[in-house]
Design brief:
Layout lengths: L17 H40 L1 E3 L14 E8 L12 H7 L12 E9 L6 E5 L5 E4 L3 E4 L3 H15 L5 H24 L5 E5 L2 H9 L3 E5 L3 E2 L6 E2 L2 E5 L1 H9 L8 H21 L6 H14 E4 L4 H11 L4 E5 L4 E5 L2 E5 L2 H12 L33 E3 L24 E2 L5 E2 L1
Parallel strand pairs: 1-12, 2-7, 4-13, 8-18
Antiparallel strand pairs: 2-3, 3-4, 5-6, 7-12, 8-11, 9-10, 13-17, 14-15, 14-16
Helix pairs in contact: 3-4, 5-6, 5-8, 6-7
């Protein structure tokens, strides 16, 4: 006798089968996916928070101006300015214990507001290898509104002039004097470099003297390589030959030393290039961008020591910096034709037209080396050698009997060769004098 299958009632239990077995796994997968989404949102939220926190506390400036010429085709030119000042970004004296670490004199007035480090970083639009042009601080150039002087002085001269003008108007507030004075200094330095090199400046970053110390400490030291042992009582540099890792105070001594070096200031420029090349190399090799603690240390450095233009999107640049930190930067020093005396000071003689052509060629500038807006064809030209320099009254340019073009490094443009200095590859640790 066949039994008919009884229809399932609504209250009857559901048959056990494959569909029922899948449900717990699906719930687990849904919960796991939800957790991942929450984690990603939290990470993104934290990144946005840190960016907002950094953007809100980092120093900003409107010195570039809304009408400043910009690079075309998506390339970016960034001017890096290192101030030889014993004051913080607000114009207040650094603490005595910090001044002691700097080994740069006990007075906060030493150094003034000279831009002893000037580097134009050209980042191509295609993300290819960037080029960093170091501008020797003693190059004799035209400073707008002042005449010929060392390029490093443009900042301090304009700052002092702006403060004097405000003081004559009855302004006594320290913060206002400092802020407006520094903005005037930044505008003058940017315009001087823009005219001298014949290319636009899209962004700038300014760091004070103590910034080198803080950067090295945030990276837990920066590796460098010296060809010879050095000992200099002025900068405090006292290092053996070979590779070594320098802490903050040692790094500052390393980049400041010029006494006892074969080419003086030009060798100091190469020291700065070597420091930046090694620091960017360590950014990548040490996994800084994936190390939250080290990243926070660098953010603290930025908050303390850095000033940038207010139109710079830092979040985008951090992504770009990951590529630059992989050694994708080459450093070179702009050529010097000779040496002379100007107003009693040692200066570098340069050929502005040659430099504009060189920079235009290396950056692929469309203007073919022509001067930037506002620069005349011969602006700042003191000819290629000291013998052709104008002589006589006091305060004008005079050839220096103690210096000659041969003192410039081989291939740096001395004697009219027109060649750039040997490149320092940012992908390794360069050895320098």
């Amino acid at each position: 006798m066949k039994h008919r299958r009884r229809p399932a009632t609504p209250d009857a239990p559901r048959p056990q089968g494959r569909r029922h077995g899948r449900r717990p796994r699906r719930r687990v997968l849904r919960r796991l996916a939800l957790c991942v989404c929450v984690l990603l949102l939290c990470t993104a939220g934290a990144g946005w928070y840190f960016y907002r926190d950094l953007a809100g506390q980092i120093g900003s400036s409107r010195a570039l101006g809304d009408g400043a010429p910009k690079s075309s085709g998506g390339a970016t030119n960034i001017l890096l300015m290192g101030l030889d000042s014993r004051k913080d970004r607000n114009g207040d004296a650094l603490p005595k214990d910090v001044l002691a670490k700097l080994h740069a004199g006990a007075s906060s007035e030493i150094g003034g507001y000279n831009t002893n480090t000037l580097i134009l970083l050209h980042v191509p639009a295609d993300g290819g290898r960037a080029t960093a042009f170091s501008i020797p601080r003693d190059d004799l150039v035209d400073i707008p509104g002042h005449g010929k002087d060392k390029i490093k002085k443009a900042y301090g001269l304009a700052k002092a002039a702006a403060e004097d003008r405000l003081a004559r108007q009855g302004v006594t507030d320290h913060d206002r004097l400092e802020h407006e004075g520094r903005e005037a200094g930044r505008r003058a330095e940017i315009e001087t470099v823009r005219t001298f090199l014949g290319v636009p400046v899209d962004h700038f970053a300014e760091v004070n003297l103590v910034g080198f110390l803080h950067i090295a400490d945030a990276l837990d030291g920066v590796p460098v390589c010296l060809k010879h042992p050095v000992k200099d009582r002025y900068s405090g540099a006292d290092f053996p030959a070979g590779r070594q890792t320098l802490d903050g105070p040692q790094s500052l001594a390393f980049v400041r030393q010029r006494h006892g070096l074969p080419a003086g200031d030009l060798d100091r420029t190469r020291r700065q290039q070597a420091f930046l090349a090694s620091a960017t190399h360590k950014l990548n090799s040490a996994g800084t961008f994936t190390d939250p603690l080290r990243l926070l240390k660098l953010m603290d450095v930025a908050k303390q020591d850095l000033v940038i233009d207010d139109g710079w999107d830092l979040l985008s640049f951090v992504e770009q910096a990951k590529n630059l930190s992989g050694g994708n930067v080459r450093f070179s020093t702009l050529p010097v034709e000779g040496f002379a005396k100007h107003r009693g000071e040692d200066v570098n003689l340069v050929d502005p037209e040659k430099i504009r052509r060189l920079v235009a060629r290396e950056t692929g500038a469309a203007n073919g080396g022509s001067a930037a807006p506002g620069a005349s064809a011969g602006s700042g030209d003191t000819s290629g050698t000291s013998s052709a320099a104008p002589r006589s009254p006091a305060g004008t340019l005079q050839p220096s009997p103690s210096s000659s073009p041969s003192a410039v490094e081989s291939g740096s443009g001395a004697g009219g060769s027109g060649q750039t200095a040997p490149m320092i590859d940012g992908g390794g640790i360069p050895c320098v004098d």
